[in-house]
Amino acid sequence: MQHVKVPQDRIGVLIGEGGSTLREIESRAEVRLDVDSENGSVAIDSVGDPVLGMVAPDVVRAVGRGFAPEDAMALLDDDMMMFELIEIDRHTRNKNDMRRQKGRLIGENGRTRELMEELTGADVVIYGSTLGIIGQPEEVEVVRRAVDMILDGAPHGAVYSYLERKHNDLTRGFNVKQND
């Protein structure tokens, strides 16, 4: 059995209307979820395929870190899909620095975060002090590198150029999903 902490304001999203999201995760991941809405603790007990059961904590963690349940459940659809969490606060000195870095990662009107998604095919969510990524390993790697560049103070233009270059590498030979 594994335990995952979910922020209070994301418990409702994890459970879903009338428990529908919770039931769907349980059925697709072949697990039993026991949600303690008081402290946000979720106990995950594998009851079927152990491989799916190993992915379930990432699905719960992803929903807890701001992903829509449908996006989080993509982790169950493809063995290669992965979830990564970057702790933004590890790269900041104080609250003001955190606010500034989050602003840089989001970009004007959300443009930087959007470009990371469009040019890599990965899903990117900034929630609290974390940035979450769901995608194929090479997509996650490109987003991670772009995030590191931004957090290290690189100009957005340089990051966008890097993303464009990697987009061309990623799409050469196979199709990356496009958000129209």
UniProtKB/TrEMBL annotation:
GO molecular function, one term: RNA binding
Residue ranges of every copy of the K Homology domain listed in the record: 1-81, 82-152
Entry's transmembrane regions: none
Pfam families recorded: KH_1, KH_PNO1_2nd
InterPro entries: KH_dom, KH_dom_type_1, KH_dom_type_1_sf, KH_domain_protein_archaea, KH_PNO1_2nd
Keywords per UniProt: RNA-binding
Nucleotidyltransferase is among the record's keywords: no
Signal peptide: none
Name of the protein this chain belongs to: RNA-processing protein
The organism of origin for this protein: Haloferax mucosum ATCC BAA-1512
